[in-house]
Amino acid sequence: MTALSVLSVASEAFPLIKTGGLADVVGSLPFALAEENVTVRTLLPGYPKVMAALRQGRPVLDLGELFGRPARILAGNAKGLSLLVLDAPDLFDRPGNPYTSPTGTDWPDNGLRFGALSRAAAEIATGALEEFKPDVVHCHDWQAGLVPAYLHYAKRAGPPTVMTIHNIAFQGQMAPELLPHLGLPIESYTVEGVEYFGRIGFLKAAVRLSDRITTVSPTYAREIRSSEFGMGLEGLIRARGQDVSGVLNGIDIGLWDPANDPAIAAPFDSVTLYRRRPNKSALLRRFGLDPDSERLLLGVVSRLTWQKGIDLIVEALPTILGLDCNLVVLGTGDAALEEALKAAAARHPDRIAVEFTYDEGLAHQLQAGVDALLIPSRFEPCGLTQLCALRYGAVPVAARVGGLADTIIDTNEMARMAGAGTGVLFSPVTKDTFDQALVRTRDLYQQPKVWRRMQSNAMRTDVSWAAPAGAYAALYRDLVEPAVAAQSA
Ligand code: ADP
Ligand code: GLC
User: What's the predicted TM-score (pTM) here?
Assistant: First the structure.
């Protein structure tokens, strides 16, 4: 295997800065790619948390003024990741999360901020750094969407680009007046370039101009060809034909290892499933419920949004209570959904408990302690929580969409008899079908042998990065050396 080097460009990376699964992917894929002889350097914005984590950051490139703001690139390591950091304090030295101010509104200059990230990536890609000339640029989501545009309109040739779409609902559409401030030429403002319905479309630009497009599951790659899931980009996605493919996410199975997880009360594996019980008791206690309860314990760990179908969970609360289940929820998100869940917990303090915080340790405890994890997403590009649930023997009860459909084996009659199921899937995503899935889950739970089999099957599912990293490495090699890849195929 020839050695390859990749510049990964993203707006978040676990454990440095995270708002969702994107960070998990960007933070863990480089380690798996190392096994494929692919070296990754990750370009991140210099948010305060990233600057603080960067050990012995060395200035490697002075960009002078980037869009009128002082900017430079620092190189260094943090948490095992090899980083390049765009140190531009006017753009990134701010409180709050990567995209919003502490009051929760988008920063008004997000177009410039992530345009700057993309511009810096294009500089590095075209050889600005003596020490690092990437063979491929891997862009993640709209925040890196202008990289292919800068490369396309640059005078110098650059390496091939891959755009991975983690969520097509977030497209980065900006005012057309921004074009000169982004340093893009006027001829880029066409349907062949960055223009999108009278605005600048960051993700649209990448869908049009990157060499390959991937998304995070094969089913989502098919779904985004339709108007139901494509969020307006379906026509452009279809036009790219075979250039669009799906590569499932993995999770870091060292970090998510129930046999060796310092966050949980009692370690367990697929043959010592009985050791999950102390974890269930500890979780119930932590949430203020009866630690000895034998009720089927349902859990949620999620952003509390429409995408995730949290409103369906609110609607299903009478069913959940009627089926004699308990429910624990860990998440943050829409105020109205938080209110509805809080009110339900106040009405049923012995059955329903909620925590509106972001807590990695508690997410581990929840996965180790609940009997089943609810994921009624309306769309789910991949989803990582079901992968964690499988690994921890928490039976996923999920909508049959996107990566959920690709990673969970529904325990239908035949799967039950064959001992092959790992969870419960339902479709279409409605209140009625979700209710029916909850009834089916309760019925399966009441058959302890069947349930244990589902759990141990789940725990034996390969949710690691090994196969997906192989697929990404093959994709990179195919771009860099198509002739060689074709011969060895
Ligand atoms: P998305 O990125 O769409 O939010 P994913 O399932 O891909 O969904 O990834 C979500 C990630 O964030 C998972 O690692 C999950 O465990 C984590 N997560 C979500 N909400 C919380 C929370 N309140 N506390 C801790 N971890 C959370
Ligand atoms: C997005 C998607 C989620 C996916 C994650 C990582 O946040 O909503 O389904 O798992 O990206 O790819």
Answer: 0.97
